[in-house]
Write a structure and sequence with these properties.
The structure holds two protein chains of two kinds. Chain A is mostly helical. Chain A has a domain of about 150 residues: MetI-like (MetI-like fold, Orthogonal Bundle), CATH 1.10.3720.10. Chain A is about 85% helix and about 0% strand. Chain A is flat. Chain A starts with 5 loop residues before the first helix and ends with a helix. Chain B is of the alpha/beta class. Chain B has a single domain, classed as Rossmann fold (3-Layer(aba) Sandwich). Chain B is about 35% helix and about 25% strand. In chain B, the strands form two sheets. In chain B, strands 6-7-8-3-9-10 form a six-stranded mixed β-sheet, sandwiched between helices. A four-stranded antiparallel β-sheet of chain B has the order 2-1-4-5, covered by helices on one side. The longest helix of chain B has 16 residues. The chains are: A mainly alpha, B alpha/beta. Chains A and B meet through helix 7 and helix 8 of A and helix 2, strand 6 and helix 3 of B.
Chain lengths: ~280, ~250
């Protein structure tokens, strides 16, 4: 048996690799066509499709409702942007409270634990009802009556409880030896937290927090139950007027426009984190 | 300054039922280097952590420059600012550049001007063979380089006493030399230090005295040529024989 020259073996290997990758691509294309084409064929050939198409995908209904829904969507955007900032601040404060051992803060720590349990464990819809209708009903002076503000508070409460737990997990995941090293160079406990533990913890929890924000950006639609005219509420009104559901599809597209980029940013950060670690 | 830099008097420490330090007495004079040797679990690391006030002692006293530092009324932060600690696993701050690791203590604890601290830090890194690596992140460096950064970080605050906890134990053998070179350099400069170590030849070369720890007690202490070459106590003899058999002495 003759020994092939090294160059030949390499060429043969590369040829085989190329063939393998071509075959892989072909299979991917064919299976995509079969799966999606098949699903489309089933939907489009169903007996109810013409009715569904008219009720959910009517171009005219889309055209008339979309500008109004878009206008309402600005309110969604403004709300979730403000809420996200508030959630980050309150969530971090609660997490810090729950991770410190200072004796004087014991009652605060207990309160923080209860806060997390209660607001994380209650359905967001119910919180919005309670804050939106319950608080103003008390008729206390100084209690805000603006439903947008009240709904914002309810969402902030619910999501800051989630985000606090994420921050807390991040903080406790930073190894004790990091605090030791920080103390050893002469930092105080607060400085060690501020300059050594928190920066690492925050970097680590960015993906789960962005994930919660994606969830929040859709849940803003829940404020519609207080009669706030945001995208979903307007879509609902449009739907009821013409008995056509297309406006809901239009609203759904708008939510996707903000959540999908967020998901891509999240993927990007996660991928970069994996490379770094 | 007359009198020892560090005095350890009858220090005990138990973790649960286990006595880790069982009545330690030790004093370290200025410009002296003391090597702590002994098997894993003999209490070397715990003793260093107790001096750095990272672990609380149960009984006894530790004095730094004549003042008790283990009294509950003493602020540990003020004490640690006079010490430099180097850990076995380096414990560098992974999110900071090399230079920021080195100057964090100077800038945040001692309030040294940032520009001045950077200048001093850079000179220190140069001296420790790390010139040009200031802006790298720790994970871009080899283990030996990381440990030298950790030494620079501990030295940058101009400590009164340095505590080195098995600084070469986590390193590949070919990287040990550069780290020991830095320790040698510090010793030559007159730095007072306690070093827990498994490197007997290095202990012999750099230490003024060697203390052998066994089950939380200093069983034997003296000049290296005595403790390492002609140990009196059977525990010390057994320990050194075992090291020799393992090819480490």
């Amino acid at each position: 048996m003759t020994r092939a020259a090294p160059g030949e073996r390499r060429a043969a290997r590369e040829k085989a690799k190329l063939a393998r990758s071509r075959r892989g691509q072909a299979i991917a294309v064919i299976s995509t066509i079969v799966v999606f084409g098949g699903a489309a064929a089933i939907v489009l050939n169903s007996s109810g499709w013409p009715v569904v198409q008219e009720q959910f995908f009517s171009p005219e209904a889309f055209k008339t409702s979309f500008p109004r829904i878009l206008e309402g969507f600005w309110l969604d955007i403004k709300m979730f942007m403000v809420i996200e900032v508030a959630v980050l601040i309150i969530g971090l404060l609660i997490a810090l409270l729950r991770t410190t051992g200072t004796a004087a803060l014991f009652p605060m720590r207990m309160l923080a634990a209860v806060y997390c349990d209660v607001f994380r464990g209650t359905p967001v819809v119910i919180l919005i009802y309670l804050f939106g209708f319950g608080l103003p009903a008390l008729e206390l002076s100084g209690v805000p009556k603006d439903p947008i503000l009240l709904a914002g508070i309810a969402l902030t409460m619910a999501y800051s409880a989630y985000v606090a737990e994420v921050f807390r997990a991040g903080i406790t995941s930073i190894h004790q030896t990091q605090t030791d090293a920080a103390l050893a160079v002469g930092l105080t406990r607060v400085q060690a937290l501020r300059y050594v533990v928190l920066p690492q913890a925050i970097r680590r929890v960015r993906p789960p927090i962005l994930n919660d924000f994606i969830s929040l950006q859709k849940d803003v639609a829940l404020v519609s139950i207080l009669g706030i005219l945001e995208a979903f509420k307007i879509a609902q009104i449009e739907t009821n007027r013409d008995f056509n559901y297309t406006p809901l599809i239009a609203a759904a597209l708008l939510y996707l426009v903000v959540t999908i980029p967020m998901a891509r940013i999240l993927d990007h950060i996660t991928a970069r984190g994996e490379i770094n670690s | 300054m007359i009198g020892p830099v560090l005095e350890i008097q009858g220090v005990t420490k138990a973790f649960g039922e286990r006595m880790v330090l069982d009545g330690i007495d030790l004093s370290v004079n200025e410009h002296q280097a003391i090597a702590l040797i002994g098997a894993s679990g003999s209490g070397k690391s715990t003793l260093l952590r107790c001096v750095a006030l990272l672990t609380e002692i149960d009984d006894g006293d530790i004095l730094l420059d004549g003042g008790v530092i283990t009294d509950p009324s003493v602020n540990p932060v003020d004490v640690r600012r006079r010490l430099g600690v180097v850990f076995q696993a380096y414990n560098l701050f992974p999110h900071m550049s090399v230079i920021d690791n080195v100057i964090l203590g100077a800038v945040k604890a001692q309030k040294v001007d940032r520009r001045e601290a950077r200048e001093r830090g850079r000179a220190l890194l140069d001296r420790f063979g790390l010139g040009g690596r200031e802006d790298d992140k720790p994970d871009q460096l080899s283990g030996g380089q990381q440990q030298r950064v950790a030494l620079a970080r501990a030295f940058a605050t101009q400590p009164r006493l340095m505590l080195l906890d098995e600084v070469t134990s986590a390193l590949d053998p070919e990287l040990v030399g550069d780290v020991l070179e830095v320790v040698r350099d510090l010793k030559k400069e007159g730095m007072t230090m306690i070093l827990a170590t498994h490197e007997m030849s290095f202990a012999r070369e750099v230490a003024d005295r060697v203390a052998f720890l066994h089950e939380g007690r200093i069983v034997e202490i003296g000049p290296p040529e005595q403790v390492l070459v002609e140990p009196k106590r059977p525990e010390t003899q057994r320990f050194l024989r075992r090291l020799l058999a393992a090819g480490r002495a």
